[in-house]
Amino acid sequence: IGFTSTFRPWHGIEDLLEAFRILVEDLNSPAHLVCIGDGPARGDFLKHAEQLEIADRIHAPGKLNHEDVGDWLASCDVAVAPYPEMSEFWFSPLKIFEYFGCGLPVVGSDVGQISDLLASGRGHLVAVGDLQAMSSSIHSLLSNPEAARKTGDRARRWVLKNATWKIRAKEILDLVEQTLGPDFALWNSSFFAKPALDGRATP
Length: 203
Description:
With 203 residues, the chain is mainly alpha-helical.
């Protein structure tokens, strides 16, 4: 199970830990959890994992170079985005685009942009704070690798068609072109004639 994040409360790290405990203890899953990233709550997260006696199932390499993240996610069969209840959910969760780019099926909280991203069979949505449902969804994907693979493939195809850095940059530049007019339009067309931007996924 893959998870990338800074270790801060609003990324749902405590919910993730409890959902993983349910998966291991109540659903008897042999799964391991890969937690990529660093942050002020990482130490407490790992300490809590020890108290729950599931630390041996958790692999936390810390902060990685971006080019190495994909290698770690490639060892995973499913990824998670367990956001908790928040008064405002205004940000775009980069991790989901990263998961999609790696062809991973995603289990995520039904909140904010996540609800749209995981629609149309690109993942499993669970109610915010419903850790039993999150554990069950993860277990279902791990128990059905062919279904998980199809979901991950669907997500990857979507992100490569709709949300690469190059696509997002072009959308922004097209909006600027509409504002600034013909002179910018000439620059814009010449810019995208060059192989300047790669196809990595982004919001």
